[in-house]
Predict the structure.
Amino acid sequence: MEYTGIERQPSISVEKIYSIHYFEYDCNFSFIGESHDFWEFICVDKGEVNIIAGEEQLTLKNNEIFFHEPNEFHTVLTNGKSAPNLVVISFSCQDTILNCLKHKKLQISQSERNLLGKIISEARHCFDCLLNDPYLKTILLKESDFIGAEQLLFLYLEQFLIHLLRRNASPKSPSDSINDPGAGKEATKIQLFNSIVKYLNEHLYTHVTIEEICKVHAIGRSHLQKTFKNYCNLGVIEYFSFLKIQKAKELIRMKDMNFSQIAEILGYSSVQYFSRQFKKISGMTPTEYANSIKAISEWEK
């Protein structure tokens, strides 16, 4: 018996990656603007931001994404009210199907958020440079201890684009979910995870226990922990601590409160404990973080 195989025929292929950024801007940042002969997209992880795309000006909010086509002038500026977290990725791709995404403000799904997280993670394995320099022109690669990190980086980005194209370019069949028996179960799991994350975000200024989360969402303790390990590789309380520090970063960038006030409003017992948790999760003290954000705002092209 002779075997026959199939050759790889990608629907979309990323040829080069020019930049991968994760920005934490203060509320008064503005970028001078640029244009280049490759694609770039901006996605809001938290907060909101104003962008200019050609002659169009619009506002992007949490989980919204916008694609700048090649040679389109674009810039970004904060609105003085929000200190946003942004993902910005630029890449070259010659496949015309990508035109389906240009000039549209799109919403990303939870699975697409997860893929963006994987892209940022692999970028940190691959790049010997900061991901928060808005004027970086050249990616410096490093010897990675993670096998296939660079390859995964391209694969995750292509997977992310395919997900967006399937939802925004392909005709949707009413029978799609019926033909996939696992789709309903996975959607239920994602819905549960999103519901708990929403609950945690709504209680950032309080103390939350595992027992309380289980009771509110009618879920067992082991099921709860398994859900969070599956989607973010953290325990639920670890994830809650992470959300608190992310909120603390936003409050620091807003510049309306000092560290003691931020620690108090987020329910920490003391500013010293807050500082220890901040460094444990972010790798720097609140003061070091505030100075780094100030430095980014003062950078010149």
Notes: Residues 172-181 have pLDDT under 50 and may be disordered. The CA atoms of residues 263 and 274 lie 6 Å apart.
